[in-house]
């Protein structure tokens, strides 16, 4: 029995990669803004329809560098329903995460919960377009503008996602993308910061390279977020295939929707109006009473059948030891996030998932109905 994981990366054809490697071997220019790095940044900005983009070695370092570039301090209002990187970046930059509850239908930070969390120490809001569902940007922007806060999106899940034809990565002061192996678009490891502000882009690029502005000027204690030529070339090739990747994922999502829509106790998500989705995740909510089985039991049953669905995002970030003592993290303060974390299960979704695999997955879920 071949295991089926929640995701499986798509790699570019190896034969297309070899000529790039030969050029890199020839030039011996391995990193520090090489030709493929420059080409990839330009091609990516063009594909995504964004103004300024800085390619990073991973999303985590991009988040930390972005916070530093924006000079975010004090308290940052964020969501507990995310991958730990969001919360860790806030903590590692010397700030305190303040958790707000999420919306029940999209699982993104609820803008109506944000205002009551603002204190004199608040300097930023860091929402997450979780599962590729765009946040309610207009409402969040209005709050940020009213209180003079920075708006920095963890946009790790929205590669290629558009709302009303506009790339969601354009929103806010800054957006962070991730190109980790498990994401819709991968450069093995990788990430990016996106902004509409030319001066901010410059500062980001200095901070990405230890803070060097030129050979003798270091503007601040920057980190090392640079990317090598090998991954830049790999990314250039990947970009040609990402639309096909998204189209195949969409077919998987449509199959699940068709076959799971009438399963009592299972809730699924549909496309949001005006949104071009990327189908990076397929979360379902398991209502134990109506379904006759808990989420954890379904997770174990899948596992016993070689299917490794994942409980993204459980536990909540607010439940980890570093954060659970924070006032905003105390049990009962985040009821919708707490309920979602108990009920959510992400089903396998990737371009290489076969019809047979999909059939097996929905059959395992249906079999609970006729116990
Ligand atoms: C993947 C991910 C990150 C981190 O990105 P890396 O490239 O793995 O460092 C941050 N936030 C969210 C929501 C993610 O899913």
- CATH H-tier superfamily of the largest domain: Type I PLP-dependent aspartate aminotransferase-like (Major domain)
**Gyration radius, to the nearest Å?**
21 Å
The CATH class label of the largest domain is Alpha Beta
Sequence stretches where pLDDT stays below 50 over 5 or more residues: none
List the total number of helices.
11
How does the major sheet shape up? 7 strands, mixed
Number of strand segments: 17
- Provide mean pLDDT, rounded: 97
- Based on CA inertia axes, which overall geometry fits? globular
Describe this structure as you would to a colleague.
The protein is built from 11 helices and 17 strands. Helices cover 37% and strands 16% of the residues. It has 2 domains: 225 residues, Type I PLP-dependent aspartate aminotransferase-like (Major domain) (Aspartate Aminotransferase, domain 2, 3-Layer(aba) Sandwich), CATH 3.40.640; 89 residues, Aspartate Aminotransferase, domain 1, CATH 3.90.1150. It is of the alpha/beta class and 371 residues long. Helix 2 packs parallel to helix 7, helix 3 crosses helix 4 and helix 7 crosses helix 11. The radius of gyration is 21 Å and the shape is globular. 45% of the residues are buried. The strands form 5 sheets. It has a 7-stranded mixed β-sheet with strand order 2-10-9-6-5-3-4, sandwiched between helices. Strands 8-7-14 form a 3-stranded antiparallel β-sheet, with no helix packed on it. The site of pyridoxal-5'-phosphate has 14 residues, from helix 3 and helix 4.
Defining key terms:
about 375 residues; alpha/beta; Aspartate Aminotransferase, domain 2; Aspartate Aminotransferase, domain 1; 2 domains; 7-stranded mixed sheet; 3-stranded antiparallel sheet; 11 helices; 17 strands; globular; binds pyridoxal-5'-phosphate
